[in-house]
Amino acid sequence: MFTGIIESIGSIRALTPKGGDVRVHVATGKLDLSDVKLGDSIAINGVCLTAVELPGDGFVADVSRETLDCTAFHQLKTGSRLNLEKALTPTTRLGGHLVSGHVDGVGEVVSREENARAVQFRIRAPKELAKYIAHKGSITVDGTSLTVNEVDGAEFELTIIPHTLSETIMGDYKPGHLVNLEVDLLARYLERLLLGDKAAVSSKGGISESFLAENGFVKS
């Protein structure tokens, strides 16, 4: 688990194809690795990866084909900047929100506009994730815990303050850039809870308007 508070900006030192997937060597910048052991989890742009080597200048992790297919990892190359966060501990200050490091989908930056000293981003999420994104709710973008300021269909807006722009890779974002999205865990669990006993029967139906009407949540 993570908090979505980025600890360091790192970069990709090397990407090595290995047996059908990829091994990545990450230079970790100011991230303190003194308490990191082999097998520990570190989030790269919101993707939870396992440290399999600790060469002294960062860490090495294996990126599975599943991760390559389901995240924006495929757009990274040697030298790409990365958001980094170590897994939380029982004494970690939870400054963001609970983040699993399991990416739900890939979004696209639609626009970027200056807003006083901040920057306003509009991001388009996959249609299937739109129902989990709420005004003033939490969302994780490339591992960064953020508050949604506005929602319009599958698009949402973020207002990013100067500190976040300088301490994460969000300052690099331009229209067309792909980002990893993780929706709020509570929204995921709430959807499952609303299914009640039907959760054990159907794994594909999900929550529909007809289901909500049948169970008294909305008027049919």
What labels would you give this structure?
220 residues, mainly beta, Elongation Factor Tu (Ef-tu), domain 3, 3 domains, 7-stranded antiparallel sheet, 6-stranded antiparallel beta barrel, 4 helices, 37% strand, globular
Task: Give a written overview of the molecule.
By secondary structure, the chain is mostly beta strands. The chain folds into three domains: 8-86, Elongation Factor Tu (Ef-tu), domain 3 (Beta Barrel); 105-186, Elongation Factor Tu (Ef-tu), domain 3 (Beta Barrel); 194-220, no CATH class. The chain is 13% helix and 37% strand. It has four helices and 13 strands. The radius of gyration is 18 Å and the shape is globular. The mean pLDDT is 91.
Summarize the structure.
The protein is mainly β and 220 residues long. The chain is built from 4 helices and 13 strands.
Percentage of β-strand residues: 35-45%
Query: How is the biggest beta sheet arranged?
Result: 7 strands, antiparallel
Dominant shape: globular
How many individual β-strands?
13
Structural class: mainly beta
* Biggest sheet strand line-up: 10-9-13-7-8-12-11
Would you tell me which CATH topology of the largest domain applies?
Elongation Factor Tu (Ef-tu), domain 3
Write the layout of secondary structure elements.
Elements: E1 8-18, E2 21-27, E3 41-44, E4 47-53, E5 58-63, H1 65-70, E6 81-86, E7 105-115, E8 118-124, E9 138-141, E10 144-147, E11 150-152, E12 155-160, H2 162-167, E13 178-183, H3 185-195, H4 209-214
Antiparallel strand pairs: 1-2, 1-6, 2-5, 3-4, 3-6, 4-5, 7-8, 7-13, 8-12, 9-10, 9-13, 11-12
